Amino acid sequence: MAIETCQLTGVQTAKLVKCDYCGKKVCYQALKAQKRKKIDHRYICKACWSDMKKRKAYKSAN
Ligand SMILES: [Zn+2]
What we know:
By secondary structure, the chain is of the alpha+beta class. The protein has two helices and six strands.
């Protein structure tokens, strides 16, 4: 697995997840919350969490 750089913290890690609200690849430190869906996960980063619109979208999502 390739080492990538977190677009929020600059941390280099092989374990990045894609925020569903800004599309950035972020590390687990920059991830605010995650939801397990039936087939997938939904991730929101800390930057999006501070955006009320995105936070609401996250909370209302299945
Ligand atoms: Zn985000």
